Amino acid sequence: MARYPSADQLLAEAMEESGHADFGPGDFREGLMVLLDSLERDGDLDPEADPRVIGDFRRRLVNRLEVEAWYAEHPEVEDVTVRGPVDINGLPRTGTTALADMLSLAPRFRCLRGWEQARPCPPPTREHEATDPRRVRFVKDWENNSAEHRAMHIFEPDATMEDTELLGMAFHGQQMVLPVPGYRDWWREADLTETYHYHRRVVKLLGSRRPPDLWLFKAPHHKFHLEALVSAYPDIRFVMTHRDPAKVVPSYASLVSSITPPADGERDLAKLGREICDHLRIGMEHAIEARAAIGEDRFLDVHHRRLVTDPMGTVRQVYDWLGFELTPSVARAMRDWQEANRVGAHGTHRYTAEQFGLSAGQIRSDYDAYIRRFDVALEG
User: Fold this and answer.
1) Gene3D superfamilies, per this entry (predicted)?
2) Nearest 5°: phi and psi at 321?
3) Which of the 8 DSSP states describes residue 378?
């Protein structure tokens, strides 16, 4: 007997819960079926985690239904303008969050916030977002995290965040926090063209009552499918961050292992480390190939070492490349942010490559083409 419900069962439950029947455009059913099958075959979750995991799938289906119902009642959303976006991507743990948080302080950008993604309807308004129950709950959930987890990742509720929920609504998200390596094998090679067009559909809804219309995205996983992203956002420009993969891979493995739901027994951390090492390398190989097709003029490369040692110089580099003026008030807000989030301000993230069956030398060997292509500085 199957441990998890079928895709058809989840679809039926979502329709019953929402009272709607239109799931909208784009191919999401295949991704849902592959995800459920991988969870069944590959998963190692403690059964107590099942209701929350399946509940997330059901919530995303309900979100799809509510998005289409909103469009039906508000057809003017079809005409909402989406400018840009500026997209920050690259390997994770390379400064994408720090750079995105600083850029998010500029009022010129419309940020894709985590709290509005989790439940897009109704779209937020500037007047009420500070007390929006979705935002309040989002902040409270973060505060309930352990001190160890808070030390691993900077948190700004109104900064742009990974589009995990939007891609999750299409069931074409990376799903890095679930033990589904079979699904990720499928996802890496999947065509996300329809997915990113659906992504734009939800972004238009989110921006329909909350300006501005120049969007700022941040998602390391975008590197896997850059050409599909361009198909939905033809004016997009990319800021790609870089760092020594010997630091990136174990740091990311540590983060993933801390936020994946508990295992039924002891999780194989060496297996997880190997998968992450291979997964991120393949993603960067995809990105390098896509850059050649998209055009290098669309990309600005930013190195972690400079971001750490000269954050304002890095921001000015990005602004100059975009052709924007950095106003004194925004620069001041960014310097204040840097002071509040200096290294160690929220605790220390401790990890080693060996915890995950890896070594610095082996990782750098695997990523040699990446290191040479971008002249990545190696850290001690």
Assistant:
1) P-loop containing nucleotide triphosphate hydrolases
2) -65, -35
3) P
Token digits of residue 124: 């937020």
Domains of the chain from N-terminus onward:
80-374 (3.40.50.300)
Contacts 24+ apart (CB under 8 A), 245-248: 245/91, 245/280, 245/281, 245/363, 245/364, 245/366, 245/367, 245/370, 245/371, 245/376, 246/353, 246/360, 246/361, 246/363, 246/364, 246/378, 246/379, 247/93, 247/379, 248/91, 248/92, 248/93, 248/94, 248/280
Sheet holding 214-218, edge to edge: 110-111, 214-218, 83-90, 237-242, 299-303
Q: Which pLDDT score is estimated for 154? A: 77
Amino acid at 307: L
Regions of the chain short of the pLDDT cut 50: none
